Amino acid sequence: MRDLLDDLELDLDLLRALDIFLVERHVTRAARRLGISQGAASQKLARLRERFDDPLLVPGRPLLLLTPRAQAIAEPLSRALAEVRGAVRAGAPFIPAESQRRFVLLGNDLAEVAAFPVLLATAAREAPGVTLWSERADIDFARRLEDGTADLAFVPDFLIAGSLQKRALPPEPFVVLLRADHPSLASLGKRKKLTLETYLSLGHILVAPRGMPGSLVDSALEKLGKSRRVVARLQHFTSAPALVAQSELAVTCPASVMRVMSPWFPITAVAPPVELPIDHTSCVWHPRSQDDPGHRWLRAQLETLLRQRK
């Protein structure tokens, strides 16, 4: 096996690819994060296997499995790449009009629809060379902020470790979305609140972004000895209004879904008949990024967006 320490051809691009392969353990998902085709990702993995004289990733379910060599590499490599990113950016000025920097934001589809139109419009005016990537906020969001492969993450407060910097987003109540001419609205009058009986008589859409079973709504109903009829389960909040607008189904969701999607769909929001907790979400980043000029510029755009939402 060749001495990797003396092999300067094993460049940072290939090491970054290795880091992503070891985290994702899935060629297609790694390709998506690398911004290349699946075929090109497979070629990179083949080169890495040759260089390390080790399979690195072997078949498994549902994801590929790390070999002992890959397990030994993963954490030190991630730390080293984070240090390199920090060293390259340390003290570097950020001139928006000249920057070619890419910012990676972790969140869900609702964050994309709410934030990206404004952020992209600002970037087009002030920083035309800057690119914004949105990726799903998975359970490893804190590690990605730490190793510098993501800049910001939009996540529920209960998932946030105390070591991260954060900016609280406006708290949101939950509402029930119905199509604008839904038959159930006729009996509400000015109350704008469904009775429990009416609510339970409806077919419901459940949005489960992380694919986990259950929900806040079902937990609240269970305490009352009740249950609802879920007829559709979706991964994305922004898909639900399209279904609601064309059916007699209901979806219980954060109020921002109504604010963001109502210009495109004939929907209305009413209060749920059960008490639900307020949704508390924050934008978080790693302390290492706190004083980075480019990161400060990005956070300033977020502040402007939040002021516009008030």
Task: Describe the fold and architecture.
The protein is an alpha/beta fold and 310 residues long. The chain folds into three domains: 4-89, Winged helix-like DNA-binding domain superfamily/Winged helix DNA-binding domain (Arc Repressor Mutant, subunit A, Orthogonal Bundle); 102-171 and 280-309, Periplasmic binding protein-like II (D-Maltodextrin-Binding Protein, domain 2, 3-Layer(aba) Sandwich), CATH 3.40.190.10; 174-270, Periplasmic binding protein-like II (D-Maltodextrin-Binding Protein, domain 2), CATH 3.40.190.10. It has eleven helices and twelve strands. A hairpin with a 6-residue loop joins strand 1 and strand 2 (65-66).
Integer average pLDDT: 87
Helix content: 40-55%
Q: What count of domains describes the coordinates?
A: 3
The outline comes out as globular
Q: Uncertain spans, ≥5 residues at pLDDT below 50?
A: 1-6
Largest sheet: 5 strands, mixed
The CATH superfamily of the largest domain is known as Periplasmic binding protein-like II
Number of strands: 12
CATH class label of the largest domain: Alpha Beta
How much β-strand is present in the residues? 15-25%
Main attributes?
single chain, 310 residues, alpha/beta, Arc Repressor Mutant, subunit A, D-Maltodextrin-Binding Protein, domain 2, 3 domains, five-stranded mixed beta sheet, globular
